[in-house]
Prior knowledge:
By secondary structure, this protein is of the alpha/beta class.
Amino acid sequence: MAKQNVAEQFVDILVRAGVQRMYGVVGDSLNPVVDAIRRTEGIEWIQVRHEETAAFAAGAEAQITGRLAACAGSCGPGNLHLINGLYDAHRSMAPVLALASHIPSGEIGLGYFQETHPDRLFTECSHYSELISNPRQMPRVLQSAIQHAIGRSGVGVVSLPGDIASLPAPEKTVEHALVTARPTVRPGDGEIEKLVRLIDGADRVTLFCGSGTAGAHAEVMEFAERVKAPVGHALRGKEWIQYENKFDVGMSGLLGYGAAYEATHECDLLILLGTDFPYNAFLPDDVKIVQVDIRPEHLGRRSQLDLAVWGDVRETLRVLNTRVRTKTDRRFLDRMLKKHADALEGVVRAYTRKVEKHTPIHPEYVAAVLDELADDDAVFTVDTGMCNVWAARYLSPNGKRRIIGSFSHGSMANALPQAIGAQFTDRGRQVVSMSGDGGFSMLMGDFLTLVQYGLPVKVVLFNNSSLGMVELEMMVSGLPAYGTANHNPDFSAIARAAGAYGVRVEKPKQLAGALKDAFRHKGPALVDIVTDPNALSIPPRIKAEMVTGFALSASKIVLDGGVGRMVQMARSNLRNVPRP
């Protein structure tokens, strides 16, 4: 049996850790590893057109599967392109292993061709970033990177010079058992007792939920019933907590709607569950606040806490549901449910006026029709910008759908690359990229990746020929729009030229049929929809400190959108409110 080299050992360990594919662009320093992948069962090399796409795709795969995913870039400029997607994966708490191949080891530090220092470059967007400069460091450095990525839910980076990758692996190496799943963490009894006292002593409790409530829907609903609490959510909590939720009062924040803002400010105890909600201007400063989070570094960094609870949301609520007293007074809950329904009725009226005849097409209408026609278990990837608004307000979660975006890092051009990673996990599952024309055109080259691999991703392109969110931010500052207009081609023609299905939609009556045809198509498809650039959106509550960085039209040219089928849910919940 031939002796393994370092690259082969590297790939074998990835397979042991559950990695099924590595996304990247080949290059000389990376060639030994790519060749090892070619010869190894259980893992494949996914050739993309840009390394940024590789990192976004790996991050999306990790978020869909919960398993470790991997990406790679060749020395210098190659691996440097990974950095934006790795920032996004790290801030999304997606376990990703990144291989940054390096220049020849004997040339490091001497200004060699394409020299960078990846072990330094990636320190801020990873839990672990180290250089292998000697074969004897294998496999321990790689194993440590994997453990950091999985155990701390983020990115681990290994920098590996190409010449080191080709050397024989050490004969007597220490390989320990790899941890590939995270444990649950239960708070200590002392923290639980303090929390029980706060809850039992409060008359009006509100829950505000983030992505940390994943897998805890039943526990949150039981707890809300016990303490008669309205339940609001952040954008990353939407897919996990909004469905089948008779306590729902909407979303707070810059894309917010409904009564979540009022519910968080009019309670006397606010419980933040698994959320690192970044917009502290939307959080109250005059009520008691408790935060429960699996990541202790998140505790208290957005608002002053009366109690910080380090633990898994589901495990914490399982304990609380056996210890807190059941409240009987639901006046606060019912008042918030009514406010929520009234707020949604108001914006729906604005949305529904002649929407099916309006051209250019209202983007809200596109999102509403998309929500209705997409599969019950569809994966939506959402571009940053106005697509975030339409996804937040119109996509209806149901416990099976997934909604992925650059919700913490806020990068442009994320939707198409993330759709690639999502689709590779299951070719039979519907994956829809909600792309803006600005984001799509930024990494448009990787539409060719869909064609090359026959990935049946459906790109729904909201084409308003502008960087809409940036244009509105300029208006906020009193500046004229400048540098925001896009002179776009017919993107559907580009899709057809690439060998995919492409159709352009300019009238509302064409929309449903075009989406149905694209969804029925077996391969990749693009629906280029010409949308109204004047469709704007504002949060339900605005203060001066909230405006910075957000699109609020100074001239009040506002179509305050709607909220799709969420109004039906609010009306349904109102049936449970006792009438005087």
